[in-house]
C-alpha cells in the first residue's frame, strides 16, 4: 500500500516557505496579505515590488527580502519600472508639489503649460503624473481650489458676488449651474439658514442613533454616541439650519436601526450628499464596494484610477456624513487592520463581521 500522505505533503508552505510571497508575485498583488516584502530576480540583478508590471521570473530565479537595504546588501539594484525604493516617486511628488504651490499662490489659475514648465515635464507627462500624485487632474484640483476659496470667503461673510469673483469663477451662473460645494453659494454662506432639516432619534444595537434629512434626502447618519453629541455634530455641519424632530423619518430611522442590528441587510436611502467633486466621487466609489468584500484604501484609490491618492481617498472616507448608507466601514488598511472609524473600531468590526455572514 502507498505510504499515507504526511501533513508536509499536503501543505505547500512546508516545501516552499515563500509560497505565499510567490503567489503574490504571480498575481502582481501590490498589498499582499502575507505582508510587505520585495523580490529579486537573480538573472537580472534587480529587486522589485510584488506588484511590479514586469513579467514574473521563473521561480528558481526569485529571491525574497524583507526590505530594500537587505536586497541591496545581497547585491541587487532597484527595478526601474516599479521603483521599489520610491526614489523616482519622491521626485515626482516634489515636482507636483511645486506646481500645486504655484496654483495655491496665484490669484488666477495658471495655464496647464505654465504648470508643466514649473514641474519640469512635458504637458502630457505632467498630466499623468499630476493625477497619479494628487488623485485628480489639474483642472479638478483647480476647481477644488476655487471651491475652497469660495467657501472661505462666504464663511467670512463676503457677498456672494464678491466671493464668486474673488475665488476666480468667471460668473455667478457657472457656480449655480454646477455648485462646486454641493450646494449653492447662498446656501453655503447661510450655513443652512432657510433650510429645514428633520431629525429622528432612536436606540439601536450599537447605541443611540440619529438620522437627519432635508427635502432632497438623508444628509446625516450617526450612532454610538450620546444623542446630544450626535445632534451637535449635525448642527456643526448646518449651523444655521432649522433642525426639528420629524415623525415622517420613522421609517428611515427604522431601516438604519435594522442595518445596525443585522449588517447583512441592504440599505438603500435617498441621499443629500454635500461635498467637493472629489469627495462625492470617493463616496460613490464606496457605495460600489460589495458587502462582505472589504477594500483597502490603496485598492479603492487604484480602482478609481488614482493609485497614488490613497491619503486623499482616506480623508474623503473620514468626511463621509452618512454612515452605513455610504459604507466607509468597508475600507481597511493594507494589512487588513481595522483603521480608525468615526463611530468606533468595535462598530466597524461588528459591521464587517455581520456583512461577511451574508
* CATH-derived architecture of the largest domain: Orthogonal Bundle
The percentage helix is 40-55%
Query: Strand pairing plus helix content: what structural class?
Result: alpha/beta
Task: Note the run of SSEs as H and E.
Answer: HHHEEEHEHHHHHHHEEEHEHHEHHEH
* Individual helix count: 17
Computed over alpha carbons, the radius of gyration is: 25 Å
Q: End-to-end distance, in Å?
A: 45 Å
Here the CATH topology of the largest domain equals Arc Repressor Mutant, subunit A
Biggest beta sheet summary = 4 strands, mixed
Strand content: 5-15%
3D structure, described in words:
The strands form three sheets. This protein has a four-stranded mixed β-sheet with strand order 3-1-2-4. It has a four-stranded mixed β-sheet with strand order 7-6-5-8, sandwiched between helices. Helix content is 45%, strand content 12%. The chain is flat. The chain is of the alpha/beta class and 358 residues long. The chain folds into five domains: 7-78, DNA Methylphosphotriester Repair Domain (3-Layer(aba) Sandwich); 87-134; 144-190, no CATH class; 196-261, Double Stranded RNA Binding Domain (2-Layer Sandwich); 277-356, Orthogonal Bundle (Arc Repressor Mutant, subunit A). The chain contains 17 helices and ten strands. The protein has helices spanning 7-10, 12-15, 19-27, 68-73, 87-105, 112-119, 123-134, 138-155, 160-166, 172-177, 185-190, 227-237, 250-261, 277-287, 297-303, 310-318, 345-356, and strands at residues 38-41, 46-48, 62-65, 77-78, 196-204, 207-213, 218-223, 242-245, 295-296, 331-332. Helix 6 (112-119) crosses helix 7 and helix 15 (297-303) crosses helix 16 (310-318).
Amino acid at each position: 500500500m502507498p505510504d499515507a500522505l504526511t501533513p508536509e505533503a499536503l501543505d505547500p508552505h512546508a516545501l516552499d516557505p515563500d509560497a505565499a510571497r510567490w503567489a503574490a508575485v504571480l498575481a502582481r498583488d501590490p498589498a499582499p496579505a502575507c505582508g510587505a516584502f520585495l523580490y529579486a530576480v537573480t538573472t537580472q540583478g534587480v529587486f522589485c515590488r510584488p506588484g511590479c508590471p514586469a513579467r514574473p521570473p521563473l521561480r528558481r530565479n526569485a529571491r525574497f527580502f524583507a526590505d530594500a537595504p537587505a536586497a541591496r546588501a545581497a547585491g541587487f539594484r532597484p527595478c526601474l519600472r516599479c521603483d521599489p525604493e520610491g526614489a523616482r516617486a519622491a521626485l515626482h511628488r516634489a515636482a507636483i508639489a511645486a506646481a500645486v504651490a504655484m496654483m495655491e499662490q496665484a490669484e488666477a489659475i495658471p495655464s496647464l503649460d505654465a504648470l508643466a514648465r514649473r514641474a519640469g515635464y512635458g504637458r502630457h507627462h505632467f498630466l499623468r503624473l499630476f493625477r497619479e500624485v494628487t488623485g485628480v487632474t489639474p483642472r479638478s484640483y483647480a476647481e477644488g481650489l476655487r471651491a475652497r476659496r469660495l467657501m472661505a470667503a462666504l464663511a467670512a461673510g463676503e457677498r456672494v458676488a464678491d466671493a464668486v469673483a474673488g475665488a476666480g469663477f468667471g460668473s455667478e451662473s457657472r457656480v449655480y449651474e454646477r455648485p462646486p460645494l454641493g450646494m449653492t453659494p447662498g446656501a453655503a454662506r447661510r450655513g443652512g439658514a432657510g433650510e429645514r432639516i428633520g431629525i429622528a432619534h432612536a436606540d439601536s444595537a450599537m447605541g443611540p442613533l440619529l438620522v437627519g434629512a432635508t427635502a432632497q434626502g438623508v444628509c446625516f447618519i450617526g450612532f454610538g454616541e450620546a444623542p446630544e453629541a450626535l445632534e451637535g455634530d449635525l448642527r456643526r455641519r448646518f449651523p444655521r439650519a432649522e433642525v426639528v424632530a420629524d415623525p415622517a423619518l420613522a421609517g428611515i430611522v427604522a431601516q438604519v436601526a435594522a442595518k445596525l442590528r443585522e449588517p447583512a441587510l441592504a440599505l438603500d436611502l435617498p441621499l443629500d450628499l454635500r461635498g467637493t467633486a472629489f469627495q462625492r466621487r470617493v463616496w460613490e466609489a464606496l457605495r460600489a464596494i460589495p458587502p462582505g468584500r472589504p477594500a483597502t484604501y490603496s485598492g479603492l484609490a487604484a480602482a478609481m484610477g488614482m493609485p497614488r491618492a490613497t491619503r486623499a481617498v482616506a480623508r474623503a472616507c473620514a468626511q463621509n456624513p452618512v454612515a452605513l448608507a455610504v459604507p466607509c466601514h468597508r475600507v481597511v488598511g493594507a494589512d487588513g487592520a481595522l483603521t480608525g472609524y468615526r463611530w468606533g473600531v468595535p462598530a466597524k468590526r461588528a459591521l464587517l463581521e455581520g456583512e461577511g455572514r451574508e
